[in-house]
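Re-run requested by the PI after the first attempt was lost when the workstation crashed. Everything re-entered from the original request form. Ligand of interest: iron/sulfur cluster.
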Amino acid sequence: MADYSVPEIQEDIQTPSLAVGTMEHLKPYPAIEKHMVPLGFPDKRVDNWQEKGIEKLGEMLKKYRSLQVYLDICVKCGACADKCHYYLGTKDANNMPVQRAELMRSVYRRYFTPAGKLFPGVVRAVDFDEEALSKWVTYFHQCSQCRRCSVFCPYGIDTAEITMAAREIMDAIGVGHKYSTEIICKVHDVGNNLGIPKPALKGTLEFLEGDILENTGHEVRLPLDEEGADVLLVAPSADFFSEPHIQSLMGYAKVFHQAGIRYTISSIGAEAANFGMFIGSFAQKQKIAKRIADQARALKVKRIVVGECGHAWRVAYSFWNTLNGPFDFLDPRYPVPQHICEFTYDLLQRGALTMDKEANDQYVVTMHDSCNVARASRMGEKPGGQFEIPRALIRAACNHYVEMDPETTHEKTFCCGGGGGVLTDELMDLRIAGAMPRVTALKQVMKKDKVNFMALICAICKAQFTKILPMYHIPMETVGGVHQLVSNAIQLGAKKGIV
Ligand code: SF4
Ligand code: SF4
């Protein structure tokens, strides 16, 4: 394994002393022609990139009034400064949200404000030159678009939106990010982020059916491309191939089986993830999301249920209707979209599912709120449903549950460190450092309450933590999905209530 530097975990999350540029060297791999061109971006950095970049910023200021407001109204109060996990983990001042946004604000002032045009030095306006672009490439890829900073900003400035805008500008001048653009190409070519072809997907689903039959004695189906099913299940593709994700997929299947609700997975629309958000592209976000709406129509389903994937839920809940709505071809009695936790919780409320909590008695469980679910969406009918519904499922499936430090959960949750398109090996140092606040809070309850399982509802959180926790001497099996716990506890064949 490469030699990574892992922060020392303290008793509490400490605000570090300031350092400048400690992470300036850490850049994402640049996107290549074969991934840029199919997405409608230039094959390489265009010759007149400065002019084009400024022109694009101007377009975006007109299109997104929020961006202009966020660039104008910051009073440099500093309330957000110590709220970013990447600043806390890396100590780099440019990872303070206010400083990150300043990389764009200083360029904005130079070209779009009278003072910046006339007296750039006085108002700290800077040219969009090589040095500025280099910092953009670095630090706008050291933001996971998690929105934690916006919770603490008295003006509600959303630095995640500034990051998305910066990435959109960079794409437009041919300076893309290899990891995200490559994945989006796989979605368009094959149908999912991992590039799993239909025969492999079918084989996996059949294998899992056999596995569940062997372990439970029940014929639980994982159907593919079945026209006329009631529900289209859209899960992150990691659920089909990665551990512990696959345990949650089996949990969803058991819930559908026990409730007697016919569902299907779609080979073309198997992927819930939408990296269009990570590169800040409305057009790509729309195109990726359209596959799901098209598949729901083609398969003639009545409902769409989204699996455990944080940013997929953010896109589905917050943007689907704008991107591809209206969804008036679906059954109006159900929300569009519906989260798998919401779906299972509803069945539980109506007595359609029975749980044996003792099946999870080996665990003392805590819950990590995924940032995209916590701060960029909701779940269910009531405010705060995105926090309460997953917890209600955990409590229904387990006897032992404790919360982590409230300063690190619910809307104040910390990102896992791998969100927003940074879940890539070349940014491993950032991922390790960014996980430090969550690891600190987890270690606190491991010590105090003997916690040995952290429940998640995000595929990226699962991938990030299984890789990073062992570096902090925590076993990777400590994390798993909420539906992994449901899968363990659900009583197949139990008498049903009303479905
Ligand atoms: S959105 Fe999240 S990652 Fe980005 S600056 Fe704010 S706290 Fe940091
Ligand atoms: S909290 Fe808001 S206003 Fe204060 S420095 Fe941060 S972004 Fe600016």
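Saved to the shared folder this time. Residues 184-489 form one domain.
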